[in-house]
Design goal:
The protein contains five helices and 25 strands. The chain has about 400 residues and is α+β, with helices and mostly antiparallel strands. A nine-stranded antiparallel β-sheet has the order 4-3-2-1-9-8-7-6-5, with no helix packed on it. It has an eight-stranded antiparallel barrel with strand order 10-11-12-14-15-16-17-18. The protein has a five-stranded mixed β-sheet with strand order 23-22-21-24-25. About 35% of the residues are buried. The N terminus is likely disordered.
Length: about 400
């Protein structure tokens, strides 16, 4: 009898180990694809480090994902802060499902295979085209309503290419890809935005297409221009004639109505951040502002963020705000300025003293007397390298100057 029980327990343990191994995601590197067009896929790589943790890679960026759940053969994982999530069925060395953003009713087909380290599969492993340097770029060049300018910043080593596109409203964050013959291919996925860029390179000229998820695509053209600079970000948004200050009253996460007339902001330098929890550039800016605020310890400095959320309900919008504050460690107030849409025209209606809300994020600098001293449109995040460092230096110098007045 004792021998029988020992054998039974041993078999049970072996069966449990096999079941557990079969029911879990395989550890190691995976290559994923998002189907952004009928004949176009956006690839990215991730590494499963444990059954409750994985890392998403975009050039120098590593996104740690700890929000992972299993239900039989289905896995759901969500990157920090953002609403979007991937839901997929897994079977040994493959995943198949969708990238979902519920508030926007967007679904992008997703698949992944285990053990593939390359991001893009090159059809032509060699190239004689060089893209390193600065490029003057125009998106939607033949559509006046959608047309906008950008600066391409790229670094090429062999066939590997990294870099980003800077625009007047922000940057496209960490892009990674290859030169495949005379075609440049770049992609990024951060849990909020899924971007794919493909472009034919002919010496000092490029012509390509930009895909954002499977809901938007537009052409772009570019030419090499090492001296090209975008318009000054401090000149794009301004107060309308007759206004000298900013006024608003919006609720915080505790339901308190907050305005600049509150005692907290009286006789202080205030940085007002126009943003959204869904916005990757806003996340980059929020990380910097939060670190600055938490380490400066200056009694005459305050920050306050105005969130314009596309979440369909007030409750979901506040959930997103609370998640952002928790993930980043933001201790200054984030107020809910709008929910149900992130439309910039609607946002401008909430801040009628501005000529427009051109970008999420936008930062408004207010001195101790309550006067608006500067409005900075967009944000040059860490993917822009030197421009990010320049922004931090400019920000620190300007705020320090206001504090000393």
């Amino acid at each position: 009898m004792k021998y029988f029980l020992t054998c039974f327990v041993t078999l049970l343990m072996l069966f449990s180990c096999v079941s557990e191994e079969e029911d879990n995601l395989k550890l190691g590197v995976w290559r994923a694809e998002l189907q952004v067009a009928q004949d176009k896929v956006l690839p990215f790589n991730f590494e499963v480090t444990s059954q409750k943790s994985l890392k998403i890679f975009n050039a120098e960026e590593v996104i740690l994902v700890n929000d992972i759940s299993y239900n039989n053969d289905t896995i759901i994982f969500k990157a920090p802060v953002f609403e979007g999530y991937i839901k997929a069925v897994f079977n040994k060395e493959s995943l198949k499902g969708n990238f979902i953003k519920e508030s926007l009713d967007r679904v992008v087909p997703f698949s992944a295979e285990y053990g593939i380290k390359s991001r893009f599969v090159s059809e032509t492993p060699r190239t004689n085209q060089k893209v390193s340097g600065n490029w003057e770029v125009v998106f939607s060049p033949n559509n006046e309503a959608d047309r906008y300018v950008a600066k391409g910043i790229f670094k090429q080593e062999g066939t590997k290419v990294t870099g980003t596109f800077r625009t007047t409203t922000g940057d496209y964050r960490y892009l990674e890809g290859i030169m495949d013959g005379n075609t440049m291919k770049l992609s990024t996925f951060d849990g909020a935005h899924a971007f794919l860029f493909t472009a034919k390179i002919d010496g000092d000229a490029m012509s390509g297409m930009f895909y954002s998820g499977n809901h938007w695509e537009e052409p772009f053209v570019g030419k090499r221009n090492e001296t090209y600079e975008l318009p000054n970000a401090n000149d794009l948004t301004f107060l309308k004639e007759g206004y000298e200050t900013l006024e608003f009253t919006f609720p915080d996460t505790e339901g308190n109505m907050v305005s600049l007339s509150n005692k907290r902001f009286k006789d202080k330098v205030v940085v007002v951040q126009v943003m959204g929890t869904w916005c990757p550039n806003c996340l980059d800016e929020s990380k910097y502002y939060s670190e600055y605020y938490n380490t400066s310890n200056h009694k005459d400095l305050e920050f306050v963020a105005l969130a314009f959320e596309y979440a369909k309900t007030k409750e979901k919008a506040f959930q997103s705000i609370k998640r952002l504050k928790s993930e980043v460690g933001i201790s200054y107030p984030i107020l809910l300025a709008q929910y149900g849409t992130s439309d910039k025209i609607k946002a401008q209606e909430k801040l009628p003293m501005l000529n427009h809300v051109l970008s999420y994020p936008t930062s408004i600098f207010i001195d101790k007397k309550g006067q608006v001293r500067k409005i900075h449109t967009g944000f040059n995040g860490p993917a822009t390298g030197e421009k990010y460092l320049e922004f931090k230096d400019e920000f620190n110098a300007f705020v320090t100057g206001l504090l000393q007045e």
